[in-house]
Design brief:
The structure holds two protein chains of two kinds. Chain A is α/β, with parallel strands linked by helices. In chain A, 32% of the residues lie in helices and 17% in strands. Chain A has a five-stranded parallel sheet with strand order 3-2-4-5-6, with helices on both faces. A two-stranded antiparallel sheet of chain A has the order 7-8.
C-alpha cells in the first residue's frame, strides 16, 4: 500500500502485552497514532486472561517477556482455549533481544508474525496490514496450534504423500521467510 | 502413526475492521504515531538514566558476584534499554543494551562471567548519554567498537538487530 492509501483502524481492538511499563507506553502511543481507540494494556497475565475472555479482540501484539516471561504461556493458553472467542485472533510477536532458540520457542506459540524490536511505526503498521491480509487457515497438530506454516498450500513435496486429508496428491510446498 | 491435523478457517476480524471506510492516509497515521512517541521523549530520557543507574547499582552492590538471579535482572534491564532507546532513535544506546544482553544471556548459567565486562557496558551507556558523546557519531561508533571488542574477547557471539 502506498503512503497515500487510506487507513481506518478506529474499530480495531488490540490487546498489547509489553515487557516493561515504558515499552507499553511507547506501543500504545504508536497504536493511538494509527487511529486505534480500543487498546487493552494489562499488567499481568491474569488481567490479560480476563480481557481475552471478556472482550472481542482483533489483534494481539505481544512480547513473550510480558509479566516476567509469562507472555508466551498466555499465548499458548489462548490458542488452546477451545471456548474462547479470541482463540484464533492474529498475533504479532514483538521480540527484543532474542536467540535462535528463543525465536523458535516464540514461533511455536502459534503467532502469525514475528517483529524484532526496536521498530519504527512503519514496520509495525506494515506487519498489522500483513496479518490483516493473512488468509492462512489455523491448524492443530501435535503440540502446535496456530496459522498453517505452509504459505501456499499446494500440497506435500513431490512424491510424498500428504498428512492432511485435504492435501492435493503431490506438489511443492512454499514457505515465506519471516512469517511465523 | 499419522498425526491428526485439525484445520480451522475462522474469519479474520482484523481484515474486516481494517476495511472500514474513512480514516486517514497511511502517511498521516505514521506521522501521528511518530509525533505521539515524541511526546514521551523528555520523560523517557529520565527513565532511561534510571535504568542505567539500576544496572550500575547491581554491579556495585556489596557482594555482587554475578549470581544467576542478579544477572537475569541485569539482562531484563538491558533488554528494556535495547527496546526503548531504539524507539527514540538512540541507536548506539540500543546497541549497547543488545551487547549487554548478549553478554549476560551467554553467561547466565555460567560462573565464568567477568563482571568487569558488565561494568564496561554500564560506563559505555553512561558515556553515550553525555552530550559531547551523544552529539558525535565518531565517538559513539568508537564506544560501540569498544564493547564489541569486550564481548568478542569473552567469546560472545553477537546477535543481530532488526533488518529493514
Amino acid at each position: 500500500m502506498s503512503e497515500q492509501s487510506w487507513l481506518n483502524l478506529e474499530k480495531v481492538s488490540v490487546l498489547a502485552l509489553e515487557q516493561s511499563a515504558y515499552g507499553m507506553k511507547i506501543l500504545a502511543q504508536i497504536l493511538r497514532g494509527f487511529g486505534i481507540r480500543e487498546i487493552h494494556v494489562p499488567k499481568t497475565v491474569g488481567e490479560a486472561t480476563a480481557i481475552a475472555s471478556r472482550f472481542p479482540l482483533n489483534l494481539i501484539i505481544a512480547d513473550p517477556g510480558f509479566d516476567d516471561g509469562k507472555g508466551q504461556e498466555f499465548l499458548r493458553w489462548l490458542r488452546r482455549a477451545d471456548q474462547n472467542q479470541n482463540r484464533f485472533v492474529p498475533i504479532i510477536l514483538s521480540l527484543g533481544h532474542s536467540t535462535p532458540a528463543s525465536v523458535k520457542l516464540a514461533r511455536d506459540t502459534g503467532a502469525n508474525f514475528v517483529v524484532a524490536k526496536p521498530y519504527p511505526p512503519k514496520t509495525l503498521l506494515d506487519r498489522i496490514l500483513w496479518v490483516a491480509r493473512d488468509k492462512r487457515p489455523y491448524v492443530e497438530v501435535g503440540d502446535y496450534v496456530g496459522p498453517d506454516r505452509r504459505f501456499k498450500s499446494d500440497g506435500p513435496p513431490k512424491n510424498v504423500k500428504g498428512r492432511r486429508e485435504n492435501d492435493p496428491a503431490s506438489a511443492p510446498v512454499q514457505a515465506e521467510e519471516n512469517a511465523a | 502413526m499419522k498425526p491428526v491435523v485439525r484445520t480451522h478457517r475462522p474469519a479474520n476480524q482484523l481484515a474486516a475492521a481494517v476495511q472500514t471506510r474513512g480514516g486517514v492516509t497511511i502517511a498521516e497515521a505514521l506521522q501521528h504515531a511518530t509525533e505521539n512517541v515524541e511526546t514521551l521523549r523528555a520523560d523517557y530520557m529520565a527513565v532511561l538514566d534510571e535504568k542505567i543507574a539500576a544496572i550500575e547499582a547491581f554491579t556495585r552492590s556489596v557482594g555482587f558476584s554475578g549470581d544467576a538471579e542478579t544477572i537475569r535482572k541485569v539482562y531484563a534491564l538491558a533488554n528494556e534499554v535495547l527496546n526503548e532507546a531504539g524507539a527514540f532513535g538512540l541507536a548506539e544506546l540500543s546497541a549497547a543494551g543488545r551487547s549487554l544482553c548478549d553478554l549476560t544471556a551467554a553467561r547466565a548459567d555460567s560462573e565464568s562471567l567477568d563482571l568487569r565486562a558488565i561494568r564496561v557496558h554500564v560506563e559505555a551507556m553512561k558515556s553515550l548519554r553525555r552530550p559531547e558523546v551523544n552529539g558525535d557519531a565518531q565517538i559513539r561508533a568508537a564506544v560501540l567498537e569498544g564493547l564489541r571488542q569486550v564481548t568478542a574477547k569473552m567469546g560472545v557471539k553477537p546477535t543481530s538487530g532488526p533488518t529493514r
